[in-house]
Amino acid sequence: MFTAAAETFPILRSAPTDPFLTAFLVSTMRGFLPHTDPITILPSAFKQLDCLLQRMPIKTANGSAGLLATGSLGDAVEYLPDLTEQIELVKADLPLMNALYRDYSFLASAYLLEPCHMSFLRGEGYGLARNVLPANIARPIARVAKLAGFKPFMEYAGSYALYNYRLADPAKGLEYSNLRLIRAFEHGLDSSSSEAGFVLVHVDMVQNSGPLVAGATAALAAAASNSRSVFEQSLETVVTALTKVNRVMNTMWNKSKPGDYNSFRTFIFGITSQSMFPNGVVYEGVSDEPMSFRGESGANDSMIPLMDNLLAIPMPSTPLTEILTDFRSYRPGNHREFLEWVQARSEAVDLRGYAMQEPSSAALYLKALDQVRDFRWRHWCFTREYILKKTAHPVATGGSPIVTWLPNQLQAVLDLMVEVSGRFEKLPGCEDIMALVVLQQATLRKEVRKYCEDRRV
C-alpha cells in the first residue's frame, strides 16, 4: 500500500493489461493523461443519455442548432430516465465509469447553468442558475463520481479536458490535428472552433508530461543516492519536457481566440463562491442539504503542481494559497497520491538543498523554475486577455478571485528565483533569465495594482 514516506511510487512504465483499471494512473509513457484513450461510445443501456448529449450543444455535430441554443435543455431533461440501476450492472468497468462521469458532468453543468447562458446572451449578466439538480441526473452522477474517484461535478481531468478527446485516426496518435472533442457545450464538435482549441491544447500539453514524470522521479532518486551526474541529467529532462509544454501552451492564442472564450465559459463555472449559486445546489435524491463544488479549472492540472512539490516552491500563507490547497482535491486520486509523495520525498531528500550544493545543479534548478515562471506568466497573460479585458465577473471558473489568485503563485516563483540567483556570484546560462525576472516582477505588480483599482478589489 502506498505511503507518502515510501522511497518509490508505483508508476506505470508499460501499458496495463487489465482493461478495467481506473482510467488515470501516472505513467512515464503518458504522464497525466489517461493510460488508454477515453471511451467514446457508451453501451446501449445508456443510449438515451448519449442521444440527449448529442442534441445538447449550441451547435450540434451536423451543424444544426442544439438544445442550449434555444434554452430548451431543461425541458428535454425531464424525459431522461434515471439510469442508476444500469450503472450498478457495469460498475466494475472503471474506464466506463469515467466516461459516464464525463457525460453526466457535462449534462449537469449544462442543465444548471443554462439560465445563466441565456441571461448572458441578453446582456443581463449571468443571473441565477438552477439550484436543484433533478434525481435523474443527480443520482447517476453521484454514483459514477464515487466509483471513478471524483466529486459529483465537472472536473478538469476526469471530464472536461483529459477524458474528453478522441482520435480521428487511431493510427496517427496524439498529434494535435488528429484530436477531436467527445462532448461540447458550444461549437466544440467543430475541431476548428475556439471551444475545441481551448480543451485540445490542454490535451496536447499534457501528452508531454511522461518525460516530466520520469525526470522528476529520477531526480528524487539521484538526490537520495548522491548521484550528481544523474541528478543533473534528470533536471535537464524536466527542463526539456517543460519547454515543450510551454511551447504547446503558446499555441492557445491561435487555436482558441480571446474574443470567443466567454461564449462557452459560462458552462464551466462551479458552484463555490459564484454569484449564480448563492445557496448551493440540492442534489435531488442524494442530499437534502445544498452542495457546493469548485468548477473546472486548468489550475487542477497536475504538471505545475508536480513542479511546485518537486522544486519545493514555498507559497505564502494567505487565503489565496488555501484555495490552491483546496484545488488539490479536484484531480484523479492517483494523481493526488503521486503529488503528495513527490512533496514528501522532495522534503525528505532536500532536493532544493542538494541542487544548491553545486553551481551546475543550481543553474539547472533555476532553469526548471524559469519554465514554471514561463507557464504561470503565460497563464496570467491568458487571464488578462481572455477574461479581465472581456468581463467584469470577479471570480474564476474554479471559484478563485480572478485578479489576485494567479499572481499569488507567480510571485512566489519569481521570489524564489531571485533568492536562488542571489546565492551565487554567477550561474551559467542564467543572466538573461534573471533580467526577465526583474522586469516581470515590476510588470506584475503594476498590472495587478491597476486591475485591483479598476475593479475596486
Give your account of this protein's structure.
This protein has 457 residues and is mainly α. The chain is built from 19 helices and 4 strands. It has helices at residues 47-55, 67-70, 73-77, 84-89, 94-121, 135-148, 156-160, 194-206, 209-225, 228-249, 252-255, 262-265, 303-310, 319-327, 333-349, 351-355, 359-388, 405-422, 431-455, and strands at 132-133, 165-167, 179-181, 282-283. The protein has a two-stranded parallel ribbon with strand order 1-4. Strands 2-3 form a two-stranded antiparallel ribbon. The longest helix is centred in the last third of the chain and has 30 residues, at 359-388. The protein is globular and about 70 Å long. The N and C termini lie far apart (46 Å). The mean pLDDT is 95.
Low-pLDDT segments = none
Average of the residue pLDDT scores: 95
Number of strands: 4
Output the radius of gyration. Answer: 22 Å
Q: Helical element count?
A: 19
Fraction of residues in H or I helices: 40-55%
| Largest sheet entry | 2 strands, parallel
Strand order of the largest sheet: 1-4
Strand content: under 5%
Report the order of strands and helices.
Answer: HHHHHEHHEEHHHHHEHHHHHHH
Distance between the termini: 46 Å
